[in-house]
Write a structure and sequence with these properties.
The chain is of the alpha/beta class and about 250 residues long. The protein has one domain (about 20-245): NAD(P)-binding Rossmann-like Domain (Rossmann fold), CATH 3.40.50. It contains seven helices and seven strands. The protein starts with a helix and ends in a 6-residue tail after the last strand.
């Protein structure tokens, strides 16, 4: 069997995702930005979205300066109309989406009985509804091609209960249930669905309080896990990754 010299050159240059398009939600900063940077460094074209226009375009410009093909759009991924426009424009600009990373999320903590219905809706819409909406639009486009990765950024809070975590934990437990069912629905179409569950990460994310940077993960740790999933051989998939810092808090 003849080997394509272009494939050899691509692999040796570290651009294993050359020719692929990735869409990362919540990618103007923090974990989403680190994931976009990692996938772009591996050769992928990257679609970015977020609610903060200045941060979003600053990230997009940084990636372009590094040589990446980039599309960026301000979007509310809990809105069906925004999601449809985002997916259509990403594919129009960059090509079919091969990798979807559902990263958009919000943290809100406190006793359940102290929270409002509006608090509940905000957390569920951002952390769970958005994954349903974006995944549905992208999966419908992946199915005819029988190829693709959907990677959901969950949390170890989706495995463990703690005081003050009612809304957040509920959203992340729900996300893991959704991820598992999507994996079963879509594997018959050649589409892999995975979850990454980090512990505490040193970002601007609205967490439960100050973090000791020596005892938490970095955004790049999460990005590494996402890249590992995307680079998995075609005959298998990594269904769930748990990330913990080496040092206990």
């Amino acid at each position: 069997m003849m080997t394509d010299i272009n494939q050899i050159n691509t692999a040796s240059s570290g651009k294993q995702l050359a020719g692929r398009t990735a869409l990362i939600t919540g990618s103007s900063r923090g974990i989403g930005k680190a994931i976009a940077e990692k996938l772009a460094s591996l050769g992928a074209a990257v679609g970015l979205c977020g609610r903060r226009e200045l941060q979003l375009h600053s990230t997009a410009n940084q990636l372009r300066e590094g040589g990446a093909r980039v599309f960026a759009q301000v979007a509310d991924v809990s809105s069906d109309g925004d999601v449809l426009a985002l997916v259509q424009r990403t594919e129009s600009d960059l090509g079919p989406i091969d990798i979807l990373v559902n990263n958009a999320g919000i943290g809100m903590f406190g006793a359940v009985h102290e929270k409002s219905e509006a608090d509940w809706d905000l957390v569920m819409n951002t952390n769970l509804r958005s994954v349903f909406l974006v995944s549905k639009q992208v999966a419908l486009r992946m199915i005819p091609r029988k190829f693709g990765d959907i990677i959901n950024i969950s949390s170890l809070a989706g495995k463990n209960a703690f005081a003050g975590g009612g809304l957040y934990c509920a959203s992340k437990w729900g996300l893991l249930g959704l991820t598992g069912c999507m994996a079963e629905d879509l594997r018959v179409h050649g589409i892999r669905v995975s979850a990454v569950c980090p512990g505490s990460v040193a970002t601007e994310f609205s967490g439960r309080g100050p973090k000791d940077p020596t005892k938490v993960l970095t955004a790049n740790d999460v990005a590494h896990a996402v890249a590992m999933i995307a680079l998995q051989g075609p005959q298998s998939f990594i269904s769930e990754v748990h990330l913990r810092p080496v040092a206990k808090p």
